[in-house]
Design brief:
This protein is of the alpha+beta class. Helices cover 25% and strands 22% of the residues. The protein has one domain: HIT family, subunit A. The structure holds 2'-deoxyguanosine-5'-monophosphate (DGP).
Length: 114
Amino acid sequence: MPTIFAKIIRGEMPADIVYQDNLVTAFRDIQPMAPTHILIVPNESIPTMNDITEADERVMGRMMLAAKELAAQEGIAESGYRLIINCNAHGGQEVFHVHMHLLGGRPLGPMLLR
Ligand code: DGP
């Protein structure tokens, strides 16, 4: 079964896509937790971080570069931002298509609740 993100990448589900190239797609999170909350995903369906291999080095690097560019576009590069990739149950992963959250636009507080 394709995930929601696979459908968004293929244009089969609506989303506010802010960047797309041959390797990655970025779109705004449907439940934003900060003024900027963008998800950056590989176009290829990789379920979790446990599934990445050396063959994915290029796409994972492209996700980082897209995050940097999008942070600048959003005007949050200097104020700062956070990048998060959740994995499996303890990581709080809900959609099983690897994705990086780009969060910023306000102070984000401590990294984790104590
Ligand atoms: P995670 O917990 O890391 O798996 O985060 C999944 C995120 O995906 C969560 O912040 C909400 C977002 N999300 C779920 N469904 C949709 C959708 O249909 N569209 C968009 N734009 N975001 C979604």
